[in-house]
Specification:
Length: 384
């Protein structure tokens, strides 16, 4: 039985060239980049080259990139760092109800510390309104944090429009771009963001490495203390092998972005076409025209998500019901709750398919037909 991996939004396989890059650094460049001898200088060169590759991928300057342990740390650093650094200006933060838990739980923590957080609702397609952001702004708002593309339904938020709105306000603007980076073309200057979070393992890089973009002049208090690494903003000896692997993954992603977008859109269209041909009942969660190309979230009325996932896995198809960070939770998806309400049947029958490296059209067709057969079986049984 062929196993088909369609859960790339949770994590992605490491690209062979990235593996080669990591192994090469582990074998040949073990120096500490803070050391002044030749071993240290070699490591420093790799660090600087990687930072240059990554900064240029989003139109940032070399010294605006700080490496982190991943997207979660980057989100935490951005939100808590801004909150602490700007406390004298105000203690109000604006975010949305569909953010990743790395953002939501950080905001909840800050609420316990005396901050006030406004959680903006989204419409039934998963989009936040710029007008709602405008109406929520106050004189004491110090941060607005809105994700670029949602990890569960793929909805792409109006980041550039929010950036324009905030140009005349004191609030810093942060976007969690973990799910969008490497798939969508991002330019921090065009978007008007002050902070942007990214994780390597979503783009066929290694786990445990990411970055936070800081616009020059942005006041962010450090979260880790020690040495003067990462331009004095994040202490600790840099993970050179993973950083070099990350940079290699970024190069590949930038070179193949346009091609991948078209391939993934074709995968989406073909999967939905096969669902229609098999005459199963399904509903699309989100707006296929304004979503990340690699994310497809579908509701199958008359089914149960846990039974579907078990049966899909037995058929060799790896998918999920939403964010990997909450896969073991019995709580319904907070994203679908925000879109459809707590009573919606979609909370109990929605599946996320996400595409990536090594997927082929043949795999998509095979998986779609198997999914349709399983769904048809459940729906037919429930009609009796």
């Amino acid at each position: 039985m062929e196993r088909i991996y369609l859960d790339h939004a949770a994590t992605s396989p490491v690209h062979p060239k990235v593996i080669d890059s990591i192994v090469s650094v582990l074998n040949e460049s073990f120096g500490n980049p803070s050391s002044i001898h030749s071993y240290g200088r070699d490591a420093r060169r790799l660090l600087d080259e990687s930072r240059m590759t990554i900064s240029s991928s989003i139109g940032a300057s070399f010294n605006e990139i700080v490496f982190t342990s991943g997207g979660t740390e980057a989100d935490n650093y951005a939100i808590m760092g801004v909150a602490e650094a700007t406390e004298s200006r105000g203690k109000h933060i604006i975010t949305t109800a569909i953010e990743h838990h790395a953002v939501l739980h950080t905001c909840e923590y800050l609420e316990k510390q005396g901050y006030e957080v406004t959680y903006l609702d989204v419409d039934d397609k998963g989009f936040v309104s710029v007008e709602d952001v405008k109406n929520a702004l106050r004189e004491d708002t110090v941060l607005v944090t809105v994700m670029y593309g949602n990890n569960e339904v793929g909805s792409i938020q109006p980041i550039k429009e929010i950036g324009e709105l905030l140009k005349s306000h004191q609030a810093y603007f942060h976007t969690d771009a973990v799910q969008a980076y490497g798939i969508e073309k991002l330019d921090v200057n065009d978007l008007g963001v002050d902070l942007l979070s990214v994780s390597a393992h979503k783009i066929n890089g290694p786990k445990g490495i990411g970055f936070l973009y800081f616009k020059t002049g942005t006041k962010v208090a450090p979260r880790i203390f020690g040495g003067e690494q990462e331009l004095k903003r994040r202490a600790g000896t840099e993970n050179i092998a993973s950083i070099a692997g990350f940079a290699e993954a970024v190069k590949i992603a930038q070179e193949t972005m346009g091609e991948k977008q078209q391939i993934f859109r074709n995968f989406k269209a073909r999967m939905l076409e096969i669902f229609e041909q098999n005459d199963i009942e399904f509903l699309l969660n989100g707006d296929i025209g304004k979503s990340l190309p690699h994310v497809l979230n579908v509701s199958f009325p008359g089914t149960d998500v846990e039974s579907l996932l078990v049966n899909f896995d037995l058929a060799g198809i790896a998918v999920s019901s939403g964010s990997a960070c909450t896969a073991g939770s019995i709580e319904p998806s907070h994203v679908l709750v925000a879109m459809f309400g707590k009573q919606s049947d979609r909370l109990r029958n929605s599946i996320r398919f996400s595409f990536g490296l090594n997927n082929t059209l043949n795999q998509i067709e095979t998986a779609a037909n198997q999914v349709a057969n399983i769904v048809q079986r459940f729906q037919s049984k429930n009609r009796k």
